[in-house]
Amino acid sequence: MAMSVRGEMEKLSMEQLKAVKEQTDLEVNLLQDSLNNMRTATTRLKLASSALHDLSLRPTGKKMLVPLTASLYVPGTL
């Protein structure tokens, strides 16, 4: 199969080869972006899992401050 693709590629004009390269570059960039998004999601999931584990170790009824924004907290109870 690789020989077939190579043979077909050799028959393409320079313009066609440029178009194939551009399309391939776009696909590689899309895959790289998707991989980066997956890595970011994995990191966030690990952080959330760790936070939930930490909360599960605290006694029920414990008073705490709950962040609503980066600078605004409200009182809460576990």
Automatic annotation (TrEMBL):
GO cellular component, one term: prefoldin complex
InterPro entries named among the record's database cross-references: PFD_alpha_archaea, Prefoldin, Prefoldin_subunit_alpha
GO biological process, one term: response to cold
Family as reported in the entry's similarity comment: Belongs to the prefoldin subunit alpha family.
Organism expressing this protein natively: Rosa chinensis (China rose)
Pfam families, sorted: Prefoldin
Signal sequence segment: none
Name this protein carries in UniProt: Putative prefoldin
Gene3D superfamilies: 1.10.287.370
GO molecular function ontology, one term from the record: unfolded protein binding
